[in-house]
Design a protein that fits this description.
Largest sheet of chain A: 6 strands, parallel
Radius of gyration of chain A: 20 Å
Number of helices of chain A: 11
Order of helices and strands of chain A: EHEHEHEHEEHEHHEHEEEHEHEH
Structural class of chain A: alpha/beta
Number of strands of chain A: 13
Oligomer: homodimer
Helix content of chain A: 25-40%
Largest interface: A-B, 37 and 37 residues
CATH architecture of the largest domain in chain A: 3-Layer(aba) Sandwich
CATH class of the largest domain in chain A: Alpha Beta
Strand order of the largest sheet of chain A: 7-8-6-9-12-13
Chain lengths: ~325, ~325
């Protein structure tokens, strides 16, 4: 599996729109100890870290430069190449999770080869992924699942991992998407694996561990998603979770980008996930719901969580808001 | 999508074990009009077609030579290369569905490039597969699903297609695995598609069609398979079947190669498939069960099919045995 060279220098290019810097912001918030600084080009956004050139970052201990911004279309613009090559010359590897691959760019390849440096595309799957074997692994596992894409499965897994560790529970965040992989320093880009190996990739992502150790696994997609449900099922089967937490955004009524597809009812989503998940772990249970209440006021959020909790007879909380409700969700996971 | 050059010359190598010639036997049985002849090396099995050299086959109208045997391990032995290059020199393209890729063999690549011929690896997915869109397509679709791998989903789809056409119904067999693709002359090797594109690949496999036309789609894996359920779900969602036929082998009690996994109960398999399939086609229904009774006597087979039919209140038949029970299953599909 991937093992990314850390700490990082975060490269922001000349992207002026903060929304495109999600990867860099995620790294700053969830892996600050691994972020030495940031570097942008004229006109580029800052995320408030010390601005260091590649050479300065290397001196400060950085081992790689991470492309921390997305571009519309997913390409790496040609005018970024001099900076990226400067980073290679300074002794940094390059890490990226974009659709365009570093290894497909001849200028980068020849510089990396000349300098003996690595170009690491985190969305390029490992070459040694086995077919899933379905064998029960030791250790405890939690998987975040969702009623849709892009509504908080990564955030929830990170927040739960942090809360587990704060309670003295041994836990690792296991990343299944590119930003999560950079935060964790490793993982498996599930969406890029060949379909036949997807469950095997999920098995690899959370290997055997001590019986009191938790792997908190970042979910992908949704079992109700017309394009991505297969990935979600492979991840569910291969993860063998003991516990699931369902992630939901109440402001969303239909699948993002698929207006003909209503989001499922929460109880239905829990039932189907438990039914399918029981195939590889008969002891699977749902600990509760992670509610993304970013569109609501504090009072509305609290009311919705309390009401949903009563309806489902499960803990419901927004990890971003934290508080007693989130503590209860954490306890329910560990119960 | 793939469009294979036909008719074929079937290459059998020097494989002496008939069981390894499944692809050639499938082509002989299901696409005889596209098989000009066979060619084996000393010691190789025959499947009873005229033995033609590549040059003779070319003269007789062949457009490609198909590797019709599997090897233990999936490699193409070096001592087959002279014959394969001879075929390229005779003006034939080469078609293969093995794990080892024709395009990874330098000797074949240089010969094909020199001669302007194609090396077609049917398990290499198309490069233009879109993300699934979940939009309802016109035309009717049937998908064969299974309680496990390798128990008759391809055979059932082929037999139903043939029966539909015999009744004057317009129908196409849509292949999702390598042997099926060679039989159909095209299709989509679902297991080789990157997971994020699997539902999109399934959508591509059965495009919009006339409202009275049937696509009969070869299923893959099983929703209950610990390694391959994700592929099965993506194929189910992308196929949007109006009708499913469940394929089962009563002699099998556990998943092939996964002894800890019991095969599901038939009613449970039908229920789960309909529940999941309803996401992209709310009108999905199960027409019946295709029972692989190869391990039973005629009397036992008839009794089992009748009994299962009574239990499920659905048509149950073995397409290999045909007869009135299979006719009833065909009618139930078209009802």
């Amino acid at each position: 599996m991937l093992d990314l060279p850390r700490p990082y220098l975060l490269f922001l290019g000349d992207i002026s729109e903060r929304g495109y810097a999600k990867t860099a912001l995620g790294l700053r918030d969830w892996a600050p100890e691994h972020c030495i600084g940031e570097y942008n080009l004229p006109g580029g956004v800052s995320i408030g870290l010390p601005r260091l050139s590649p050479a300065q970052a290397k001196t400060a201990g950085a081992r790689s430069i991470v492309i921390g911004v997305a571009t519309p279309g997913g390409a790496i613009p040609d005018h970024w190449l001099p900076t990226l090559i400067e980073a290679l010359e300074a002794g940094l590897d390059i890490v990226a999770g974009m659709h365009a691959k570093l290894n497909d760019m001849p200028a980068l390849r020849s510089a990396a080869s000349r300098l003996g440096r690595q170009l690491i595309d985190v969305r390029t799957p490992a070459s040694n992924i086995p077919i899933g074997n379905g064998k029960k692994r030791s250790g405890k596992r939690l998987l975040t699942v969702g009623t849709d894409c892009a509504l908080g499965k990564k955030y929830t897994a990170l927040a739960l991992t942090r809360a587990f560790i704060a309670r003295g529970v041994r836990a690792d965040f296991r990343a299944s998407g590119q930003t999560g992989i950079m935060i964790a320093g490793g993982g498996m880009a599930m969406d890029a694996v060949v379909a036949d190996f997807a469950a095997g990739a999920a098995e690899m992502l959370s290997p055997e561990n001590d019986s009191d150790h938790w792997d908190v696994i970042e979910g992908q997609g949704s079992l109700f998603h017309p394009a991505y449900a297969g990935v979600s099922l492979a991840l569910l089967h291969g993860s063998q979770p003991d516990v699931i937490v369902l992630c939901h955004d109440p402001s969303r009524k239909t699948v993002l980008g698929f207006n003909d597809y209503k989001l499922p009812d929460l109880q239905e989503a829990i039932d189907l996930t438990l039914r399918l998940g029981a195939r590889t772990n008969p002891h699977i249970r749902c600990a509760g719901v992670s509610m993304n209440t970013s569109a609501l006021s504090q009072a509305e959020a609290q009311k919705l969580c309390a009401q949903t909790s009563a309806e489902l007879a499960l803990s419901v909380a927004d990890p971003i808001r934290g508080g007693a409700m989130f503590d209860a969700l954490v306890e329910a996971c560990l119960a």
